[in-house]
Amino acid sequence: MKYLIIALFFALSSCIVYGPKTENKTPLSTLNGENYETSPLGANNVLVPVIKTKDRETQIQGRLMFSENGIQLPLRFVKIAMSAADSSQVLQEIATDSDGQFILRGVFRNGDYVLRVVSKKYIGEGTITIKDYQVADVLIIANSLPQK
Q1: What does the pLDDT read at residue 146?
Q2: Most buried of 52, 73, 105, 115, CB within 10 angstroms?
Q3: Residue ranges of the chain whose pLDDT lies below 70
Q4: Same domain for 134 and 63?
C-alpha cells in the first residue's frame, strides 16, 4: 500500500511538471488534441502527461475605413501594424486590399493587441482582444493627419 501511494504521487507530480505552456483557447481544443501532444505511452495509461503545446494559427479579419465629415470610405493599400498592447514592438505588418480589408495570420497568444495605421497621410488605431482562433469584424477608423 505504501508503494502504491508513492507511485501515485510520482505519477501525479509528473503531470504538474509537464503542464501546458500556453493558455487553452477553448476547453474542446484540449480534449480533442488540437493543441497538445501526448506521450506515446499515454494510450494505455490513465494519466496522460502533456509533453508540449502545438502552435495554432490565429486569424484576424477586419477593415480599415477613412472617416471625414461623417462619410466613411475604405482605405486601400494602407499598411497596418500589429503590436501587443503593452509593447511597441511590431509583431506583424500587412497592407489592406482594394476594399480596405485585411487578414492577419499568425501564432498569437491570448491578450490585448493594438492595430495602428502606418501612413504619412492617415492616423488611426484600434484595440482587439484575442481569446479565440478567429477574430472577425475588426473595424479601424482612420483620419487625415493634420496639415502643417
Answers
A1: 82
A2: 115
A3: 4, 7-53, 148
A4: yes
- pLDDT attached to residue 86: 92
HSE value, Cβ hemisphere, 13 Å, CA-based, for 94 = 20
Question: What is the DSSP secondary-structure string of the chain?
Answer: -HHHHHHHHHHHHHHHHT--SS--S-HHHHHTTSSEEE-GGGGTSS---EEEEPP--EEEEEEEEEEETTEEEEPPS-EEEEEETT---EEEEEE--TTSEEEEEE---SEEEEEEEE-SSEE-EEEEEE-SSEEEEEEEEEEEPPP-
Q: Which of 53, 78, 95 is the last residue of a domain?
A: 53
Quick one: cell of 36?
A: 497538445
- Give the model's pLDDT for residue 17: 47
- How do residues 102-135 score in pLDDT, each as one tens digit? 999 999 988 999 999 999 999 999 999 998 899 9
Cα four-point dihedral sign 124, 127, 130, 134: negative
Same domain, 93 and 123: yes
**What phi and psi values does residue 104 have, to the nearest 5 degrees?**
-105, 130
Provide the domain limits for residue 10. 2-53
**Are residues 52 and 35 in contact, defined by beta-carbon separation less than 8 angstroms?**
no
